[in-house]
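Proteins fold reproducibly. Consider a sample protein:
=====
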Amino acid sequence: MRANLDNKKLPVIFLMGPTASGKTDLAISLLDHLPVELINVDSAQIYQQLDIGTAKPDAETLKKAPHRLLGFCDPADAYSAADFATDAKKEIAEIHTMGRIPLLVGGSMLYFKLLLEGLSDLPTADADIRKSIQEQADKEGWASIHQQLQLVDPITAEKLHPNHSQRIQRALEVYKITGLPLSELQNQSNGGIKDHYDVRQYALVIQNRALLHQRIEQRFMAMMEAGFAKEVEALFQRGDLNADLPSIRAAGYRQLWDYFEGHYGLDEAVEKAIIATRQLAKRQQTWLRNWPNSQEVLVDNERGYLDKKILYENFLGLQ
């Protein structure tokens, strides 16, 4: 990519899609066609030791196709969407100085949104997270949930009475979604990249729900055969991790973690993990259906492979 001499904005590519849609394979194949550098946009793949269950590319693949922002956080650390936006902007700028094109690939839609638009609005409600908080409150009482909020957002907690259940639930929900306290989000505004770059956005869409569910189940069972349970067991045995950490809340990890805590058997844990992954894919596809300025790329066919022709044709003009 030559220098920007005609005042056109430098390109950035977003390659988004639900889990098990083939995003990573497609991104890697584009290395043979475009001068791109890959940036990971998967909130679970940022963690070390979360390899099998996140479908992280193996070492041989990463030699051919290095991914930035991949496997650099310890599972005990909290890493937020705002942290990602800051780090991704630095990576994008560095890639452009190399004369290459940043290609951001993944399914963490909040990461994409925050990077694109900046941090201005609070995230929309997440039904699964709200249900989890409500279930915990039903068991332990709202005073216990208020104490939990005090640990992560003492400023907001101080303003709320332990009986203010809806406001406590929302504040804790925002933290679980973004990794940031509500009090910080309300006082923070970071600009996005949409006005500074030519952002080309592509959304992989699988319309055949049965096909997507089949691919999710097949991939998860392959992960189990590859040693996913042992991977989670190693995390469990570290002793410094817990089920409330963002790393352990990832689909698949949380369910197997519950198995090692003795809440249910392995077969039930696997079933619950597959269901959780399907729910994740549904949320991702809901994001994508409402995503402005993106080009949908249908990936449905009986083999489940991608037709890359439409993407290659669009990307050729970026060289």
